[in-house]
Every structure is written in structure tokens, then in C-alpha cells.
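Hi P.,

Sorry for the delay on this. The queue was packed all week, but I finally got your sequence through. Input first:
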Amino acid sequence: MITTVVGSYPPLTRDPLTLPGKIAKIVGSYDKYKPAIALAVSDQIKAGVDIISDGQVRGNMLEIFAKNIPGMEVENETPKITGKIKPSPISICQEDFKYAMKIAKQISKDYSNSKKSFEKGTKGVKGIITGPSTLVFSSRIDGFYKKKEAAIIDLAYALKKEAQHLENAGAIYIQIDEPYLSTGVVDVSTAKMAIEIIVQDLLIPVSLHVCGDLSGVFNQLITFPVDIIDCEFAGIPKNLKILEKTDLKGKKIGFGCFDTKTDHVESKEQILKLIEKGVELIGSENMIVDPDCGMRMRKRSSAFEKLKTMVEACKTFSS
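Then the structure:
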């Protein structure tokens, strides 16, 4: 059973410890986020996670993109749409992704991203982008767009370029985060059209992460042109009902198996029990096991122990 993360990890930046690093800081070339990326990658691999991320340490899932997409900006921690949205002239996430992959390969040659399918033993680094519907509905629109749907489609074309950058950099798959799709405020047909735009030319698998109560929208999500629908089941156990007698249409389920809203570390038995329920409903071959959501707000010790316990539970089930 393959394990992964949803994406974010506690962003523990660090001042330089060496003389060259201190000099680099003086001249403005020191990157305090690289140690945080290295730590996130190291912890994920030490915990035994198969498909890891760069930890999304440079900011939350909104500001990382809003700060760098033409037509958007961040003011007082609030994303704004200020003009015509266009693709960024350079990749937003590719350099952090490449650095994460470099660190991963130094730790273990298994993370070479040579496999592009979900089979036993698959390991690698995935690329993560925040979805266009979530970005638009989280932003204040200042004047240019009269309808949010138009902004969503323009953002889809901008994010399409970013997904291609990550594919070219060696991502084992692309994850698109769309938590707003569970809220009921998004036009699902527009959201689906936007995802179609992003994935159209990709040659690697795609996952759609939607947290929250999916009982009212899962039947629509399962028709999206992606390979994985990633959901939370520990924090919202009633989501298990959506898997009962459900036609997955060939898709896999990203099976959130521990609560990311608390630092409390679940026991291996708790996680294993939930995984076993998922297996009863859809079979282990249709599951990729992961946290409910990102872990940016968690203590590092808690985040690591939760991941480690998740992996141990999966190993217990497999044995």
C-alpha cells in the first residue's frame, strides 16, 4: 500500500550556521527556506513515506501562488486579484521541487522518480499546486473580473504552465488542492472545466485533494479527469459512507487516515482500524494512504510521529 503526504510540513527556517552562509546572508543571497525544505524531505523519508513533497515551506497554499501570478498580489495576508491573470514568466515552485528531489536522492536512491504508475515500491517527489477555484474564492477581486468563473478559467491556464514545469522537473505526479469544492459555493462545472485545462497535456498522473464533508459533491468529483480523489476520513468519518457501493471509475482514493487539526498522535491501532475500513469498502489496491490534510500548523515532533505511525500501520496491514 503506497503512502504519501498531502503537502505542507512545519516550516522550520534556519539562520546560517557556517561562515560562507553568514556572508551569503550579509550580501542577500542566503535562502533560509532551503534548510526547511531539507528538513521536511528528511523527516518524510525517515518516517518511511513513499511519495513525498517539498513541504511547501515558503508560505501557505494561497500566498505561494498569489504572490507570483501576474494579475494577483497579497495585501495584509489577503490574496487579491487586481488585473488580467496571466501565467508567470518563470516557474513558481520548480526550484523548491528540484531542491527537494536533490535532497531525497542524497538520502535514498529510491526517490529517483523513475516510475510513473502507482505500483508497489513506487517512491518519488510529487508537485503540488493550489487549484484555481480555491485561489479565486479565497481572493478579493478588485475591479477587473465581473465574474469569478472568468477568473477561474484564466487561473487554470496560468496553473497549467506551472503543472508542466513540475512535470518537466521530474514530478512523479501532480496534486491539485481544491478544498473549496466541498463548501457548496463553487460552481462544480466551472471547477471541472478548469481542472480539464490544467491536466490536458500532462503525461503523469494527477490527484485532486478536496478536504471537508464530500457527501454532497463526491459523485461529481469522481467524474473529474484525474487519477486520484484525495479525501479526509479521520477528521470526517462520515466520508466513509461515500465509498459504500461507489463506482470509482478506475480512480484511486487518497485515504486520509489521521487528523491534521491536532498535535495528538493517534495510535497505530487507531490508524490501522480506519485503513481496514477503507479496504473493506474499496480494496487496498484502490487506496493511497495519507494524512487528512497538510501539516503546516503542527509541531514538527507531532507531524513526524503521525507520519511514522501511519507508515507502521500500513506495514502491519500488509504483513
